[in-house]
Amino acid sequence: MQSAGGQVPAIVEVLEQVQIDHTVVDLIVVDEQHRLPIGRPYVTVAIDVRSRSIVGLVITLEAPSALSVGLCLGHMVTDKRASLERLGVDVTWPMAGKPRELYLDNASEFKSEALRRGCQEHGIALNYRPPGRPHYGGIIERVIGTLMEMVHELPGTTFSNPAQRGSYDSDARAVLTVAELEKWLTLAVSSYHGQVHGTTRQTPLALWAAGVKEAAPSMVTDASAFLVDFLPVVRRKLTRTGFVIDHVHYFRNALKPWIARRSQMERFVIRRDPRDISRIWVLDPDDGSYLSVPYRTLSYPAVSVWEHRAALERLRGEGRAQVDEDALFRTVEQMRTITETASSTTRKARRNAERRKRGGTADETKISVARPPVDLLPPEGSSEPTTEDRVMPFEVIEQW
Hints:
5-stranded antiparallel sheet, alpha+beta, disordered C terminus, globular, 3 domains, 33% helix
């Protein structure tokens, strides 16, 4: 999609091509409870090449991953008024819609099965920079650079390098939480959209408005259901007791028809949200919908993948060759207690506590799904899937 000289070809419509990339933010943030430093967060940014508008932005405490990309896409494709209201920011951010093509570098998260399958489901083309040619992604890198220059004005900045930072004590000056940084960056994006761009000689806001009049984007109405199609993928066989993923059992009565004929089935495609593994989404091989399946033991707490892995490492460090599910969740609870106790004194513990707080237990991260028009053969009684149990391949309003 780019010429030998690295120039972007003629792109005439908004969302015809979107570039996405990540960076660690040049800022130390603090936790919400103690207002003490917890390190630098990451930001994932998406830019529309035609208008130079920032169409998606996500801040995480986790390193870039397939989930970061999915969250950024979810932010990109839906109306942003709800998220602006949640942040309490009185600005407009009209850029929303489904991209026709994503232009990415060759990082592993951009070549994940989760992204590939999600893009196939939604008709989004994937295109990659030539290996070893970083200048081919100059548009997204320049806008990220612009945002980081603005961040350098904030207390707690790390600047771009130690030479720039000099004797400035970033930890001592840090005052912003992740939520406050998200709010500040939203205001910064609004300011950026109203400034004349050096290449286009117009504001991104004006170019976007003109582009929407020429070709209205394809809109998505529910970012949560859309996100399911971009969650990381695992594959497991179905047993008489349901699915087992990393020593955790998942079951619901609606699986019984599948269990009855499981000998004819291959491994199931399963989506799992790393922020909250208390339920999974299983792809129905017959109709292409997703069935939500919770823990078999509903009393277990919602945990993130990183908490789960830390507990596994601890159990194995104690010499346990066989990992018991109950012991695994007891270890998670013990580690949470340790973290809460130590959070006022250690940076790592504060960061872990903040990661858990921003994980899958937050209201805005819950994924509700819609019932398909045709049911599977549900078993009798309460096992019939409810309106929050299934999601069909996501319906969009096509306006290309």
